Amino acid sequence: EKAGFDHFMLKEIHEQPKAYRDTMGSRIDESGTKVILNEVKMTAEQVKSIQQVHIIACGTAYHAGLVGKSIIEKLARIPVETDVASEYRYRSPIITPNTLVIVVSQSGETADTLAALREAKRCGAHVVAITNVVGSSVAREADDVIVTWAGPEIAVASTKAYTSQLIAFYLFGLYLAQTLGSQDGEYIASVVTELKELPAKVEQILEQGEAFKDWAEQVASHNNLFFIGRGLDYAVALEGSLKLKEISYIHSEAYPAGELKHGTLALIEEGIPVIALATQDDLFEKTVSNIKEVKARGAYVFGLHSEGETELVKAVDQVFSIPNTLPLLSPALSVIPLQLLAYYASLARGNDVDKPRNLAKSVTVE
Ligand code: M6R
């Protein structure tokens, strides 16, 4: 049932191109220029009355929600807050009938996420769920459900569920933009075109999958490391760091690159690995100057950039490139090398990749 792969996690990493295609599926119209989300039953009037969006989730789904915040703010120009469910539900959040609450949960059974959903409904908010399980508690209780068609995810470490959640956010962000008229049709069509090209680009990254083994083996001999990035690269850094902690048990911290010098830079010493994401064109120069700061203090830097960005090669010790796409879509590509890094680092350390210690696939306790 692992289809020839050694672990479910590796199988699921390789299922991502299919998960992207299935999640986009019939949600893109035939002309390839627009999104159709028939499952969202909000009227145009309801969409236009949204004053704020709250995205609520736990763990990896929360990290997808951080990317979702950027997507919705950019495409729909509505203010968005993303919070972890176990914080949100206890902090008396300001939820009004004009708040759109989006809950994200692979399993649809996470206790804190479900409780946050119920609180949002009690306050009169409209709740949209992004979930991988049709008929789950979250799916049953939400007003609208966008199903991610990733298929069953067995490995405790989430991979294809996360990336399918990103696809769901792109679709939903485009749907909001279409309904609100917040972006012109030409721009929407260009995002849809690039979205459709993502699965083939993920395949290109996966073809070089074994290349990440060496990288992982180098990382696996350390007990501490950093992931840095700005903007969407920071959101992906958080996910890369969680994945690595969860299955390799190596401590790592994800940091906004520009924030390092406000304290954390003191931890950079000779030989410490720093994984630097620099896929965002408009932030590239700024990230490179942060890379120089850690290099000057002895860090060993692995850089991740978009193809053709030769500048990074000079600034780092090793470099990996991902195919070019729109900066907004890059998380759907840049996370793949980080998933493979975590996988091979876990293997190198002889851990149980699919069932890491202390963790359960579905967290139904508070
Ligand atoms: O089923 P959910 O998406 O609600 O689960 C949320 C988290 O428990 C989950 O994403 C967890 O962080 C993963 N094990 C991370 O790989």
Automatic annotation (TrEMBL):
Chain ranges of the SIS domain: 43-182, 215-356
Keyword Repeat included in the entry's annotation: yes
Key words, A-Z: Aminotransferase, Cytoplasm, Glutamine amidotransferase, Repeat, Transferase
UniProt keyword Cytoplasm, yes or no: yes
EC main group: transferase
GO molecular function: glutamine-fructose-6-phosphate transaminase (isomerizing) activity
EC number: 2.6.1.16
Residue numbers annotated as active site: K361
Compartment(s) where it occurs, according to its Swiss-Prot or TrEMBL record: Cytoplasm
Reactions catalysed according to its record: D-fructose 6-phosphate + L-glutamine = D-glucosamine 6-phosphate + L-glutamate
Physiological role: Catalyzes the first step in hexosamine metabolism, converting fructose-6P into glucosamine-6P using glutamine as a nitrogen source.
Binding partners and assembly: Homodimer.
Protein name: Glutamine--fructose-6-phosphate aminotransferase [isomerizing]
Source species: Paenibacillus radicis
Recorded name of the encoding gene: glmS
